[in-house]
Design a protein that fits this description.
The protein is mainly α and 71 residues long. It is built from two helices and no strands.
Amino acid sequence: MRRMFSFVIGTLIGGIVGAAAALLLAPTAGRDLRIQINDRTQDLAANIRNAANTKRIELQERLETLRAPRV
């Protein structure tokens, strides 16, 4: 389990570094690049919030099911 977690973290960090390098080496103006980075960052943050909320709701429902008295 720990090896899998390390692999996932490494993959995420590698993806972030690769994306940053691609953006920095892209042939666009600095202002346009900053706008693109800001937009993508906001989209990523929104996606992370949505995924976290979905998982939280799923886990709350599961917890309620487990806490319910069994008949």
